[in-house]
Amino acid sequence: MKYIFISGGVISGLGKGITAASIAKLLQAKGYKVTNVKCEMYVNIDAGTIRPTEHGEVFVTVDGVETDQDIGSYERFIGDDLRSANFLTTGQIYQTVISRERNLEYDGEDVEVVPHVPEEIIRRVKEAGKKTGAEFIIVELGGTVGEYQGVLFLEANRMMKLKDPKNVSHIHVSYLPLPSTLGEMKTKPVQYSVRTLNAAGIQPDFVVGRAVLPLDDKRKEKISLFCGVAKENVISNPDVKSIYEIPLIFEEQKFGEKILKHFGMKPRQQSDLREWRKMVNVIKTAKKEVKIGIVGKYFQTGDFTLEDSYVSVIEAVKHASWAQNLKPVIQWLISEKYEQDSKALNELRQYDGIIVPGGYGSRGVEGKILAVEFCRKNKIPFFGLCLGLQMAVIEFARNVCGIKKANSAEFCPDCADKVIDSMAEQKALLKEKKYGGTNRLGAYQCQLKAGTISRKAYGCELISERHRHRYEVNNEYREILEKKGLIMAGLNPEMGLVEIIELPKSKHPFFVGTQFHPEFKSRPVAPHPLFREFIKKCLTAKK
Q1: Which of the following is catalytic: 120, 502, 519, 533?
Q2: What is the per-residue pLDDT for 51?
Q3: Taking the model in full, what pTM does it have?
Q4: Is 116 tagged catalytic?
Q5: First and final CA of the chain: distance in angstroms?
Q6: 170 is an active site residue
Q7: Catalytic, out of 517, 528, 533, 538
Q8: Residue 117 belongs to a domain with what CATH number?
């Protein structure tokens, strides 16, 4: 197995994750089996207890691990389902080392931060390769070099390269600013970040230069001279309109071939990026717009808008739009303003479709319920995801079934009509304040009802989708909900839990809610069927 470590320098948010995913895509296109691993520096065991505005979206794997959003990027680029072995945190590593010490698995040694912590990191990285059968394991190190919390992961990289230099490589992604007052792209920040990496005992084999514009020869020569990297191994990674252009930009620079040459290997096949090129061409040329409004509450962080909170939803909309040669126009809509001014709901008319995504907590939920009601009454295509389904059920119960005090146990634990409630085992966990990793997580089966929008979209009866939630539709209210016209289009066959709700096609062009998160399974060249159907109906409803 070959191991490629990827670090970042100067600033966070450079795009290491997309760089790692793009490299994996290139090697995959050349005939090799690849997998990606993300190393997070935080002491949390997983990402499940972190606010979306703090660290971006929480992505859930098939086997139910709550991970960093980069795992989602990897899955979208390489088209494989990743699992728990592909995600490491400092918390996991220390938890394991301490547990082993308590069980006398170190044979009486004094357990030290070095070498025992880096050794556990190495063990896990190798385990990820073994479990996936990958020939290339691409390991992204979170954060930036020079941060105290990343030292032990760099140490693991150094130790691996020391023992097996032929099979371990390092790629450093760093930033070249272009100060407007100077008018010249500066390499000094890259030089400093590489020197910081050198101080950890690591010399990069490649430097990827992130900048507003492509790197010119002079910049590449300076990086080569002062960072000790061959000029041809300085790769340009400029700003682009779509992240899906990056593999093609790398391919033009023969990055994949250079990596293989570094390991003494050759491509097994001519790069198979035909479908990818076709998709990127649509991204660049599509003219006809489809306008989608996302009613959420995790957009704002100070004076800025954070798209990363709903990155999988946004990408799923894009994938479905591009597949139909459309240009998606996505707008963030803050649900709380509808609670303050009901007239503001009229802005929903200007969109071809509305999505209400997932979330936790009571803030903004009444605004979401009002948005759902507006979409239902005005026949605006509506797609509810997880919490979005629950908002739709509460709205329907209140305004169609006449259950005026209908609510969720999450927001109103003492209310009389909990149309959304938690399962018995969840209640026990909440009582004991066991929050981390205790949601209903990972893939579960769903049986689809014949004649429904969902059944038509999927084209089969039994599906599997990923979950992340504590609360469910209360089956005690199913009879009255169905009697009044709400279709339970999908049920979990083992537990009888509601997975999908719909309104009849005769009543509404597209009114669908899912308890699961379909966005996690959407791929650039293979859009999720429900998102595809939603975008299709947005166009027909518009006409």
Answers
A1: 519
A2: 77
A3: 0.93
A4: no
A5: 54
A6: no
A7: 517
A8: 3.40.50.300
